[in-house]
Amino acid sequence: MKLFTFWRSLATFRVRMALALKGLTVETVTVDLMAGHQRDPAFHAINPQMLIPALVDDDGDICTQSLAIMEYLDELHPEPPLMPRAPRERARVRSLCLITVADSHPLVGPRVREHLQHAFGATEEQKLDWGRHWLIVGLDAYETALTRSSATGQYCHGDTLTLADLCLTSHCVGVQLFKGSLASAPRVAGIFERCMSDARIAAAHPLRQPGAPAA
Amino acid sequence: MKLFTFWRSLATFRVRMALALKGLTVETVTVDLMAGHQRDPAFHAINPQMLIPALVDDDGDICTQSLAIMEYLDELHPEPPLMPRAPRERARVRSLCLITVADSHPLVGPRVREHLQHAFGATEEQKLDWGRHWLIVGLDAYETALTRSSATGQYCHGDTLTLADLCLTSHCVGVQLFKGSLASAPRVAGIFERCMSDARIAAAHPLRQPGAPAA
Predict the structure, then answer these.
(1) Which SS3 state, helix, strand or coil, does residue A8 take?
(2) Chain A to chain B Cβ contacts (< 8 Å)
(3) Which helix (H) or strand (E) holds A182?
(4) Which residues of chain A have pLDDT under 70?
């Protein structure tokens, strides 16, 4: 398998964590989002959305979208499971995933920041404010959702890692990259810390990837 | 079951279609997004994201996020199936769903348009342009993804309805609500037309819901 990746991509970070927890290794191909290489025809041929991650199977089949890739990996390699079994619990995990996958992260990516500059002349500071705003909105939603539910345990759903934790971890790293604080979300911060203490997750961190700036 | 809904919500439209195809009826509760009622404490208690849809089971369990709700309904009520069986095919359907669920629709909702006005003084016309921009970006991605793959049939995945078709249908209605055109995407437009010719889907259309303006 081949993973199209870039150090800063939070969506690719999610997939790296899932691969690591499943004990899978893949070949990686860097797509430099800061240099605009996601718009190269060669990558458009892989993903017409011009977004990463994209996972290419050994026979050339392409899977895009971090959540679709993570569920695919979990279905192909069921151990250790990253989704619960019961429909209701699966729905809860998916809805937690989508707080960042749908409603936070897509609002802060490079293409959106570029379009804010194009459409409204947004400055670097305004683009940073914009990103932090949406990540904090998502962080608050996570904190309330986790605090309210008796299904929350040591992790987002009970006491074992699920896809929701990988999504929450990427969300928290996003907050940090956009110079926000986790102080208003102690329950989230506790789970994030627990996740980052897992060496497999820590090794997948954006700042530990090739090309990342010194921390 | 109780569904929190609003006529214009494209995410709730997706869930209405899934309910209709499964032959399920639910009680509905209107949350007037244009009047800001999603921020009422009573609704915040249902969904701290202050977004619809939210589905409340008879015992009070709450499920949010349209994609999580649709997969939940499909797992609880497997007939007719709205997801294929094979992991790779499921991954393809999910990735098609997420073109709109993650990368298009969250960029155009009321809270984003309000924040554009707040942060950049965006006019009504600029907010409409912003929304149309992202919906057309998504439309182009759908067209290319569907045209390239031999798995595309009469519908997004083969010749039977899947969740991808419900997502594509909501995307196309979004393009229309934002005064965009489907002309650049004939393959998408054909599938959309086929979906809308299904009376159950047509009846779920935003403009056919209580409170919608005359077409």
Answers:
(1) coil
(2) 129
(3) none
(4) 215
Nearest CA to B91 out of A12, A62, A94, A72 is that of A72
Q: Report phi then psi at A55, rounded to 5.
A: -110, 125
For B79, other C-beta atoms within 10 Å of its C-beta total 8
List, for residues B18-68, the tens digit of each pLDDT value.
999 999 999 999 999 989 999 999 999 999 999 999 999 999 999 999 999
Separation of alpha carbons A82 and A78, rounded Å: 8
Under the banding of pLDDT at 50, 70 and 90, the label for residue B136 is very high
Tokens representing residue B79 in the block: 């007939």
The pLDDT tens digits for A86-126 are: 999 999 999 999 999 999 999 999 999 999 999 999 999 99
Among B22, B49, B96, B135, pick the best mutation site for testing chain A contact (most A Cβ within 10 A): B49
Q: Which residues of A touch B49 (CB under 8 A)?
A: 99, 103, 141, 145
Q: Evaluate whether B42 touches B48 at the Cβ level (below 8 Å).
A: no
Residue A33 carries which side chain, given as an amino acid letter? L
Kindly give the pairing relationship between strand B62-64 and strand A62-64: unpaired
CB contact at 8 A, A43 and A4: yes
Residues of B in contact with A75 (CB under 8 A): 87, 90-91
Residue window 143-202, chain A: list those with CB within 8 Å of chain B. 144-145, 148
ipTM of the complex: 0.97
Give the residue carrying structure tokens 């970006």. Answer: B137
